[in-house]
Design brief:
Length: 362
């Protein structure tokens, strides 16, 4: 809804802050429902919420401009959806303890076939799912790949912190959700105020790398969890470091992924951004769960020390994923990333007079 410029940075920063606030609200509400109404209540409560959201959207979200629209890419969309479903199912098979068997091999074969078919359809379809040449922009490629990697880290780190608090430290589901609240407050403040100021002053690439450094520190802190640890020493500092970094990372990625897009491309860029985050979250959680449970006994209850060792290994692996994301951001994204106004920062830190103009408003 917003063209390149400060307005889009504000909108994306607020969007990411709202996402973080909603996530923790869900965790806390989930703890209340689990303890009072059972885990099924977590799903039932979504129905009235969705009805309320539909009414809100219909009344307040602008329709936007209408015009001659291209035909919907139905076949490429269905093929890609089937590919993602097959891929996630294959990962879930590998997450189990019995990797051998026709089910796993069949799921892997179907995933490979669907991937080849989706690529072929993308190349020959009259209305491909993605506009041809869409990934020519280096900043867009780097931002989407970074989002894919970081989506897995953010999903797994919250999950394993919750597991550590409940299974090792003995917190209830509600208490565990409340203990995550400081992380939400931190990411809201970092995203709403910190990222907006940092992107405007230093550009998206520098802001992104700064945030990734903070996330790496937080994940490394969690890799030193102890079975005899405490929330205040082992968890809270890591939550604050990770959340502060995430508040810089996700708005920077969002701005980079949607920069220099035409009016017709904005929806595609935004859709890919969400797809990368969701796919990265599902993939990362499956991979890191496999890492965390690799050393647990197959037919016995794991001890607190064994669980903690698995959590530590998963966080150490997550640290490596964040470092990989930083390498992608440093090598793929332009060294002079676009500022909110669309211009490129000059050597002295100010906008270069010869900078490219921002995308026209529509």
């Amino acid at each position: 809804m917003f063209p390149d410029g400060p307005g889009r940075v504000r909108a994306l920063s607020t969007w990411q802050a709202a996402t973080a606030a909603g996530a923790t609200t869900g965790v806390v509400a989930g703890g209340i429902l689990t303890q009072t109404a059972g885990w099924r209540g977590v799903f039932l409560v979504n129905v009235p919420l969705i009805v309320a959201l539909l009414a809100f959207v219909a009344a307040r979200v602008p329709r936007g401009e209408t015009g001659a629209a291209a035909p919907l890419p139905v076949v490429p969309s269905l093929m890609t959806t089937a590919l993602v479903a097959a891929f996630i199912y294959t990962l879930s098979r590998f997450e189990g303890r019995s990797l051998a068997g026709p089910g796993t091999e069949l799921a892997l074969a179907v995933t490979v076939v669907l991937a080849a078919a989706a690529l072929m359809i993308q190349r020959i379809a009259a209305t491909p799912l993605l506009p041809r040449g869409f990934f020519a922009d280096r900043g867009r490629r780097g931002a989407l790949l970074t989002m894919l990697l970081m989506g897995g880290v953010i999903a797994a780190y919250v999950y394993f912190v919750s597991q550590y608090l409940q299974l090792v430290l003995g917190f209830s589901p509600l208490e565990a959700g409340l203990e995550l609240a400081p992380a939400t407050l931190t990411v809201v403040l970092s995203s709403t105020f910190g990222s907006r100021a940092a992107i405007g002053r230093y550009g998206t690439r520098t802001t992104l790398l700064t945030g990734l450094t903070s996330v790496t520190a937080g994940q490394l802190w969690l890799s030193f969890l102890s079975a005899a640890g405490s929330y205040w020493a082992n968890v809270l500092p890591a939550l604050l470091l990770t959340a502060a970094g995430m508040g810089l990372v996700f708005p920077s990625i969002s701005v980079s992924a949607t920069a220099n897009t035409t009016a017709a491309e904005r929806g595609t860029a935004a859709s890919l951004l969400v797809t990368a985050q969701q796919l990265g979250g599902a993939t990362g959680l499956a991979v890191l769960s496999t890492v965390a449970t690799a050393g647990l006994p197959a037919h016995a209850t794991a001890s607190a020390r064994q669980l903690t060792d698995g959590f530590r290994l998963s966080y150490l692996t997550a640290s490596g994923i964040v470092v990989l994301a930083a390498a992608v951001a440093g090598l793929v994204m332009p060294s002079r990333s676009p500022r909110p106004g669309g211009g490129l920062p000059g050597p002295g830190g100010r906008a270069d007079a010869r900078a490219l103009p921002s995308a026209p408003e529509t």
